[in-house]
Amino acid sequence: MKDTASRILLEIRDLETHYDTPQGLVRAVDGASLTVREGQTVAIVGESGCGKSVMLRSIMRIVPKPGRTVAGTIRYLKPDGRQVDLAQLPVDGPEIRRIRGGEISMIFQEPMSSLSPVHTIGSQIIEAITLHRDVTRGEARRLAIDTLAKVAMPRPEQIVDQYPHEISGGMRQRAMIAMALSCEPRLLIADEPTTALDVTTQAQILALMRRLQQEFGMAIIFVTHDLGVVAQMTEFVAVMYMGQVVEAAPVDELFFAPRHPYTHALLHSIPRLGQRKTGERLMSIPGSVPDPYSRPPGCPFHTRCVHEDGWRCRTELPELRPVGDGRTARCHYAGQLDLAGISRQGKSA
Question: Per the domain annotation, does 11 fall within a domain?
């Protein structure tokens, strides 16, 4: 685990990103807060529609219209020690363009939707390099081949001149990682980068990301639905529900001692080794994520929470508050409920 005394690289506070639609206002990110330190790996987990990807796009200032960031701060520590609030930068301004792709890079779930089908792999990486680094096009081509080699791409000298449709899905994902790493970013944002891959390729990509993180010394924000990947890859976990971070904690503490009922329900909704032999039933979370156009009052999770107490949970929005050393939870009764964690066997499964 990285030194917890390392400097804060990115600090998100009370972020709100909304979508104005004909059906009404969607508060995709609704007061989320998160801290990422230099060299740290942070996972963001939660069901689909909880605002994970929108929060990541808010950091990069690439939220598609009609979405817009309306409140909160995204404080980023630049290499020269200055702090800049990304949320206040114009989305197409020169400063965010220098940061986006150069100091903060992002890889997506499906590379075919991110790589241009009409340009070669090499030309797309070269464009990223020449945009952020003072090199000639020839030097950029050499750097592109070197970066493809670093991500364990076979025959990088040939792949650099091929088109995305000419290579496999796993190789396309490696190409997208190479493009993201070509400018040696300080922060890599990975939005479910292995979901579309088979299990073997997924394991290779995860191992590759761990190795490259050590080599480049970068921080990673990793979004995934797979709690097994969280256990393997990350040091710190943020759990999101309806646009809010409802719990944040070091990975071991969160797995073995959750403080929020939603986290507890997520952990117990995954199958574990030996569960069939013991006869333990697989737990499911009651109901579904509420309609974003008709958010419930009070705690957003109270409609599905087995610990819901009535008036307070239904009417009063809980604050995100400390529940231990480096831990926070957004629940009126965080730390008071008897929430058993999952077994060490289950975590490693």
Answer: no
Residue 322 has pLDDT above 70, yes or no: yes
Among 12, 17, 32, 29, which residue's Cα sits nearest to residue 75? 12
Residue 291: inside a domain: yes
Instruction: Examine residue 195 and state whether it is found in any structural domain, yes or no.
Output: no
Domain, as residue range, for 253: 241-348
Distance from C-alpha of 270 to C-alpha of 272, rounded to nearest angstrom: 7
Residue 220, class by beta-carbon neighbours within 10 Å (0-12 exposed, 13-18 middle, 19+ buried)?
buried
For the stretch 160-175, pLDDT in tens is: 999 999 998 888 888 9
Nearest Cα neighbor of 255 from 228, 283, 225 is 228
Structure confidence by residue, pLDDT tens digits, 229-280: 898 889 999 999 999 999 999 999 999 899 999 999 998 887 665 555 555 6
Residue 3 has pLDDT above 50, yes or no: no
Position 308, amino acid: E
- 277 assigned to some structural domain: yes
The amino acid at residue 6 is S
> 239 by DSSP, 3-state: which?
strand
Total domains, the chain: 1
Q: Work out the angle at residue 244's Cα, subtended by the Cα atoms of residues 111 and 176, and round it to the nearest 5 degrees.
A: 15
